[in-house]
Amino acid sequence: MSPAAFEAPTRILRGRGSIAAAGPALRDAGAGRVLVVTDPGVRDAGLLDGLLASLDAAALAAAVYAGVSPNPPWEAIAAGIEAFHASDADALFGIGGGSSMDAAKVIGALARVEGDWRAYTGPDRLPIPSPVPPCACAPTTTGTGSEVTFNALVTDRDAGRKRAFIDRALAPFVAVLDPDLVDGCPAPVVAATGVDAMVHGIESFLNVQSNPITEALVLGGLRLLGPSLRPAVLSRLDGDARGRLLDGCALTALAMNVTGVGLVHAMSDPLTVHVHAPHGVANSALLPYVMAYNAPAAADRLAVLAAAVGVRDLPSGLTRLVADLGLPRTLAELGVTHDLIPRLAEDAMLSRNVALTCRPAAVGVVEAIYRRALDGPPPTEGETLP
Questions:
Q1: Full-prediction pTM beyond 0.90?
Q2: 232 and 336, same domain (yes or no)
Q3: Which domain holds residue 298?
Q4: Distance set, CA 165 to CA 92, 107, 293 (Å)
Q5: What angle separates helix 299-309 from helix 187-206, to the nearest 10 degrees?
Q6: CATH assignment of the domain containing 137
Q7: In a domain, 386, yes or no
Q8: Helix 279-294 / helix 363-375 crossing angle, nearest 10 deg
């Protein structure tokens, strides 16, 4: 996709109770039997009830695959493909966090594909053959944006790293943004995923492929996310705060979908593999340090972002936000040790997002940022990292 291009093929249904429209949307897309892809926590919390009722009302048969785990390994995807065939499904609905939605997208994309799944990942990937079964998604957290993106991440346990699927065929045809699905989300999850959505926007805005369309989406998203995170996590007195997070997340994800992200994501993915840190938590722990590194190359743009988020200085303002939300502020809190840093840096350099960042970063620079983020202290106002 060229830097000037923009595409948003996903139809977005939003507002309280919008999950009731999922069944009719799938029926209109020609579905007859739907595989619902989720994780055990979402299933056990009763969050499938509204979806299943909507599918039933639309005269659609449904089967549930609840075998998704965080940072899903290929084995969970393969089991989902088996469930897809065993249920004779012709459509999918991913409901949950980013892991469940990513899993649904990949299950559908590879359900009728033979051969090594890795061939469809990475810079030399094969295109996913068309047609793929229709896939719709609904987030139960407030930050991954998988419901509107062309991307999905799967953990390759054999290689000890994540592999990225990037293909237009992965785009869900419908996204359902229903605040009823996130009202019961635990506050720490809202905090981590909400910051993750902010990272999507910030890194898209600083990306070398940023353009006026994506910039407008980012600033609109951050103006929703910045003021809403604290009340959504800490007080819950603002009943609309989590709905604003859902909208803000979708906006920043639509921008990220076109531009890609940057060094925070490149450095966080190895953390999810080697210390099993949740994606949003890993991003939040790295964010202030990487912004302090980016500052010499993008001071004016960081000032625009700070105003949108509602802070005076982006690195230090993000440090305070992360602390207020109760998220880890150093990598030591995630279990990272000094001896792991060379491997983390080596894996981070495999990410395409390193080349998209506004300030170039060689492996030695990445190691230095990891070390500062491991030991702290977090950057102070006006501080930059060399």
A1: yes
A2: yes
A3: 187-375
A4: 18, 12, 28
A5: 150
A6: 3.40.50.1970
A7: no
A8: 110
